[in-house]
Write a structure and sequence with these properties.
It is built from 5 helices and 6 strands; from the N terminus they run αββαββββααα. It has 219 residues and is α+β, with helices and mostly antiparallel strands.
Length: 219
């Protein structure tokens, strides 16, 4: 519990520094604390370096996140970039999104929701049934609760927002996509790896049995 409290405090402090315009509410249920941040982000604010940025996201290369949430082509990037025909279909680049982030400080990953503009059900892509987004595969250890904070998580959310914007306008999800089929998950997630749902639990103690049953047509 002490570790969870300290990690939540670290996230609150980092969010205050990096996203000062976000509102924060902290609640306590029993002995558990949880925080909710709400604010507006505009991932793309300039065309400068935009094609390089989109190509880097497409190839899963690092990008740079400024305080407040602007996403830029990484200044230390030395990759050769290619132009993509789908960039010609992007007409609304400077979209603003209202997001809500929930986190309790423990091993369970933060959850992010796009509140405005709402994502219509027919346009949901890489989202959980709860409406929260899926910005990465948890079992790949991209975000680690004892090392990272909500600021780091929000960087992945911004990348997801750019990918969703491209898909909404150009019909293309840039970058690799991970199959959510239970057979694929069972083959690729080790029993002791984190579950795909972001609970922070081992796969064997979370959704593995569910996926085994689903793969056999029992669910």
């Amino acid at each position: 519990m002490a570790d969870e409290t300290s990690r939540l405090e670290a996230s609150i402090e980092r969010m205050r520094d990096y996203y000062p315009a976000f509102s924060l509410s902290v609640s306590t249920v029993g002995t558990n604390q949880g925080a909710i941040w709400k604010g507006r982000v505009q991932p793309i604010r300039s065309r400068d370096g935009l094609e390089e940025l989109l190509d880097d996201i497409h190839h899963e290369r690092p990008y740079y996140v400024m305080p407040g949430g602007e996403v830029l082509h990484h200044p230390r990037c030395s990759s050769s970039h290619e132009q993509h025909p789908w960039t010609n279909n992007l007409k609304r680049l400077f979209e603003v999104y209202e997001v809500e982030i929930k986190y309790s400080g423990g091993a369970q990953h933060p959850a992010a929701y796009v509140r405005d503009p709402p994502v219509p059900e027919q346009k949901r892509w890489h989202m959980f049934g709860s409406g929260s987004i899926c910005p990465y595969a948890p079992w790949l250890q991209i975000w680690k609760w004892q090392e990272h904070t909500v600021v780091d998580y929000l960087g992945h959310v911004l990348g997801w927002l750019i990918k969703w914007m491209v898909r909404d306008q150009a019909g293309v999800w840039i970058g690799p996509e991970i199959n959510h089929d239970p057979t694929f998950l069972l083959r690729n997630i080790g029993r002791n790896n984190e579950c795909w749902c972001g609970s922070g639990k081992k796969y064997k103690r979370c959704h593995r049995t569910h996926d085994e049953n689903k793969s056999r047509g029992l669910n």
